[in-house]
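Bug #77: duplicate submission created two jobs. Keeping one. Sequence:
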Amino acid sequence: MINYKELIRSFTQEDYENNRVNLHIHSKYSDGKGDFNDLIKQGSKYKNIAISDHNTVKGYLENEIPEYVIPAVEFDVWCGYVFMHLLAYGIDVKSKALEPFLAKTKRETELDIIRIFAKRDIKKLINAIHEAGGIAVIAHPACCWALSLDRFIKKLKSYGLDGVEVYYPYPRHRGIIKFNTVANVKKIAEKYNLIMTGGTDLHGEVL
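Kept job's structure:
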């Protein structure tokens, strides 16, 4: 059985920057343009990939998944006044613990105006991710509206946060809406001894 926590912990900055690992990919199961199976085929050139569709694991339930694909999902959730995305890696996609947090309709996986009204409880969500055997990682934290990212991530760690997405190119609108530098995010992750992950947040068809 794969120990996904240790596997992800073993990935280096070079793995992410040299396109050997990509842990943030979206498919047509949420708001991406790429076919789930086609993205998996393209991912065979990587050491590991993770397709982390918004609020759904249907892609994993409806398709055959090779070993180099790490099961994942990206949840929309509020933590106090901050709207954030929480990545879950290495989860049992059939876990009953995750069911209350998964989308009930396709619209909940693709429309920003619906997703921003998510009512998931951050503490219960992190507990559910752990119960499903996974790790909880804050996505693209430099885009979070927190007045102090350091204090915000410290609070999330007290709730059980395992990691921080550090190696991230910030494409699309997130290149404009950015409140912290990647260097600062890395320092915070190191300060709180959190796993550092990365990915391109791909929404297109080509990895």
